Each structure stands twice: as C-alpha cells, then as structure tokens.
Amino acid sequence: MIALTVALTMVGCNRKTIYSHYEHTPINGWEKNDTLKFSIFPVRTDGLYREEVGLRINSAYPFMGLTLIVEQHTTQKRLMRSDTLHTSLIDHDGTIQGEGMSYYQYNFHLANLQLQADDTLLVNIRHNMKREMLPGISDIGVTLKRLSED
C-alpha cells in the first residue's frame, strides 16, 4: 500500500505528464474490430506534446511484434492523423524486450504534436494483425506529456 501511495504521488508531481490512461482488453483475445477510445481533455496551454502508446502483455502473446493503427483527431483545428505503429516485443533470440515478470510493460513514442490551448485530442487504437483475436494483451494506454510551451 505504501509503494502504491509513493508511486501515485510521484506521478501526480510530474507536471509534464498531463494524461495517462490505460484501457483493458480481454486477456483471452483482443478482437481486431474492437477499437479502444481515449479522450484527452482540453490542454491548458499551447505547446509541443509528446504522445506515447503503452502496452502490457503476458506470455500468452503469440508473436514477436504488434502492429497498431492509431487515429487521432483534434477539436480546435479539426486535424486528423493516422499512424501505423510497428512494435518489437520479443527479439529473435526469444528475449522479451519489455519490463516486468509475468506481465511486460512497453512504451512506444508515437508522435510529437503541436496543440493549442483548449484542444481536445481523441485517440482510437486497434490492432492490425492477421489473426482476428490476439491473446495475451491485457492493456493498451496513451500518455501525453508537455515538452514545451509557446
């Protein structure tokens, strides 16, 4: 309990991180047409923001990598952006690249975005793998950090 309190305090004190949220996926299989949706509340200041995608898997995940389609919309400028994120999770020797013991955490830089004050960012994420159901993925998340202010 003490470790959780310390961790939450450290996250709360990091003023550069303005959003960090994970959505759970069914551990027995994330369906290809199951799009995860994130709504990042209006940012307070104009500036450059770093966007990351987080991923948690366990040993049931059957592949060495994962391909994600990330679609983003901003409300002020009505900008739309679509990115394909190719991730490497396990190297050719079978070594897991993530951090953890039974669940492995990965964080991938997606983009640096120039946002205006009061912009809301809507992010949709789905997988783009040949298999319809992907077992072993427990969570997908989005983190937004402020890099600079205009």
Q: What is the H-and-E element order?
A: HEEEEEEEEEEE
Mean pLDDT: 88
The separation of the N and C termini measures 40 Å
Judged by helices, strands and strand pairing, the structural class is mainly beta
Could you explain how this protein is built, in words?
- It is a single chain.
- This protein is mainly beta and 150 residues long.
- Helix content is 8%, strand content 55%.
- It contains one helix and eleven strands; from the N terminus they run αβββββββββββ.
- It has a five-stranded antiparallel beta sheet with strand order 1-11-4-8-7, with no helix packed on it. A four-stranded antiparallel beta sheet has the order 3-9-5-6, with no helix packed on it.
- A hairpin with a 2-residue loop joins strand 7 (99-100) and strand 8.
- It starts with a helix and ends with a strand.
Can you lay out the helices and strands and say which pair or pack?
Elements: H1 2-13, E1 17-24, E2 30-31, E3 36-40, E4 47-58, E5 65-74, E6 80-88, E7 99-100, E8 103-115, E9 121-127, E10 133-134, E11 137-149
